[in-house]
Amino acid sequence: MSEFFNTELWAKLLLALACGAAIGMERQIRDKPAGARTNMLICVGSTLITMVSIHVALSYAERGINISDPGRIAAQIVTGVGFIGAGTIIQARGAVHGLTTAATIWVMAGIGLAIGSGFYAPAIVTTVLMLLILWALRWLGRHVAHPQRFVEFRVGASRKAGVLAAIQDAAAAANLDVDEIRLARVGEGMTVEFAAPCTRQVRDQLLERLLAVDAVEDVQAQA
After folding, report:
1. Considering only CA atoms, which of 49, 47, 53 is closest in space to residue 72?
2. Residue 34 vs residue 96, higher pLDDT
3. Host domain of residue 132
4. From CA 195, how far away is CA 77, in angstroms rounded?
């Protein structure tokens, strides 16, 4: 029962909760697979497992039994969190999504390990650095680097001769390499779907070119 009044225990768990919440809220605001709850659970769980690992080693040492490695149980966190991270990675039409989320989960486990071991300062500094990486570099990528993203286009048009060729010409004019095009009938019209990696600027230019085609009625783009 004395453990309930151990201030160090509560301090570690609450700090892990705060670090997980800080990173998790950023992920949740951006509508990523691993949000606040996931990151909080990973960080708190890693902290708890590390504390248990150290406690077991000390308990054996007090009884004069030197067979417990403090890092043995905690080391399994790295393996376990790898499965969770793998679950957030999605591959679709040649593009891989979720690598940043998987890396975030991996670092969150490391922060939990640090807190459970009593390295509070590195855990807090790492949390702050992660927020800077997720926020600042995202801003730079949006305003400076103009990175390419895998964008799915959906075009609604009337069934007229030359519509498909006009859509392909618009994509070619935007220097997009479209390998696969899907067609479907919708009432008296048709839908044309294709995907390609492009920057935001190229995406907007293609949307304008597609809307300029007479037979095109609506265009949607989703990254």
Report:
1. 53
2. 34
3. 2-145
4. 38
- Reported pTM: 0.61
β partners of residue 220: 154
* Region 12-16 average pLDDT: 94
Output the DSSP codes for 5-43: G-HHHHHHHHHHHHHHHHHHHHHHHTT-SS-HHHHHHHH
Pair (131, 27) in one structural domain:
yes
Taking a C-beta distance cutoff of 8 angstroms, is the pair 53, 26 a contact? Answer: no
Same domain as 115, residue 17: yes
Please tell me whether residue 218 adopts helix, strand or coil conformation: strand
For 165-186, what is each residue's pLDDT tens digit?
888 888 888 777 777 888 888 8
Residues near 4 by beta carbon (within 8 Å), at least 6 away in sequence:
none
Residue 148: phi and psi, rounded to 5, are: -85, 140
Q: H helices of the chain, where?
A: 7-29, 36-62, 70-87, 99-117, 120-140, 163-173, 200-211
How far from the centroid of its chain's Cα atoms is residue 97's Cα?
A: 7
Q: 121 with 197, same domain?
A: no
Q: How many domains does the chain have?
A: 2
